[in-house]
Amino acid sequence: MSKTAPASEASVALPQPTGIPNSPWKTLGKDLPAGLVVFLVALPLCLGISLASGAPLLAGIISGIIGGVIVSWVSGSQLSVSGPAAGLTAIILSAISTLGSFEAVLAATVIAGILQMILGVAKAGIIGLYFPTSVIRGMLAAIGLILILKQIPHFVGADADYFEDMDFLQFNGQNTFSALKAAMGGISAGSALVGLVSLSILLLWDNVLTKRVAFLRLVPGALIVVVLSIVLNNLLDVAAPVLRIRPEHLVSLPSITAWQDFANVFTAPDWAAFRRPVTYTVAFTIAIVASLETLLSVEAVDKLDPHKRVTPPNRELLAQGVGNLLNGLLGGLPMTAVIVRSSANINAGGQTRMSTFFHGLLLLTSLLFLESVLNQIPLSALAAVLLVVGYKLTKPALYRTQWNLGLQQFLPFIITIIAILFTDLLKGVSIGLIVGIFYILKANYESAYFLSIPPAQQAGPLHLKLSEQVSFLNKASIVKVLNELPNNTHVIIDGTNSSHIDYDVLEAIQNFNVSAQERGINVELRGIKHVQVLGH
């Protein structure tokens, strides 16, 4: 029998955070431009998710404003952005049908917010720490791929679908690949031209100009792209009307010209819905799904943060609860921390919560003053920004790194990617988590004991030394090695260095002690207490 022992792992030197901002006021030069980029990305997302959810169009904007202006300060995260999430669209659409009105869904959102606050106080956020790194990296890489695949139709002006449709199966009946195929047959020349110019400028700005001219690093390429895309679209309108971008491929922000229009933006919940049991069922669903998406997102954002800051998960649940309570009272869509906008924030150079706060202020301002300008932004220019964000999340170097770490890291990583691509975020992560747990169980199986076998020319007992912690997960491997011991031998089962041995394992050892007599095996137990075994 071969000798089995836990494999030692080489220590990995972790990067030490340097230059962590200690005041949001000292980094305004980076945070304000980053907040502007996040705003430009978030605006069409907020509107599009409202559309896909079957909610009033401005409900997404309200959620984005609350996420930026309020949640950014309650949250412990410096870089995550909160707002309406694509992962909740199907739930909200179904909830409106189940409860009969969006106002009733707002009542459920109030309850969901309170539930999330309770989860935060009860310290339930610790569950986020149990997601393996390989699964989180797989989630980020999958989101990068999805961004690329989903934004190509907008990039070429062939898709009027909502802007952050992240699921494989879309609400209009298509899937990711059928939408791509349809896009190739319906390219809008004007949108495609603006998209290609925008992407070229972004690549030139990030890879050439900012490296040669230091002061250009203060201006995010996405801002340059947005401004030039408006100029280019207006030039096309005059010089080549046939290339003019159609209205459905531009940002669409409702017009607010009077105080009454602004007051009508807000919607109160249906108070009568609080008396219906089904409202609480919907609220529980929203609270659980929103909390899981939030914990996954902040875990991913922490890994992308150049300063490697750690978000307190319980405080994040509390912050999301406050946000959803306000959303329910004011007419906003349920929110989560969202990885796409957070990634855009990091890639644009955001340093502190000021960038998220500034994006919320801009969303609020846009309702009042910027509608005429913002409605000229082509979606293909914003798609170009997200294509670059997507590539940075799923660079080939990431796949090489995971492969070099071994199958126990690569398989959960790649399976998470595939599962998310063909299902949705939560299902895909769940599948990846199952694969990750399999390798955890396998590691436990292999590290339960150390079996010492004397050389053939020397007499002596077999020595089975148990690990410091022996749980029920180790039972299978210990039973296997005991059953494979040769007959007519002397074996020492040593638990003297074990601080805990699970009852299931003790019972298995006691059973072996009884059956070993029939095989001529002399068993010597050290540091292993006797337990009552059924039938003995």
From TrEMBL:
Cellular localization per UniProt: Membrane
Ranges where the STAS domain occurs: 464-536
Gene3D superfamilies: STAS domain (3.30.750.24)
Principal location listed in the UniProt entry: membrane
Record-annotated membrane-spanning stretches: 32-50, 57-76, 88-115, 127-149, 182-205, 214-236, 278-296, 317-340, 377-393, 413-441
Organism the protein comes from: Hymenobacter glacieicola
Record bears the keyword Transmembrane helix: yes
UniProt-recorded name of the protein: Sulfate permease
A Pfam family matched in the record: Sulfate_transp
Membrane-protein topology: Multi-pass membrane protein
UniProt keyword annotations, A-Z: Membrane, Transmembrane, Transmembrane helix
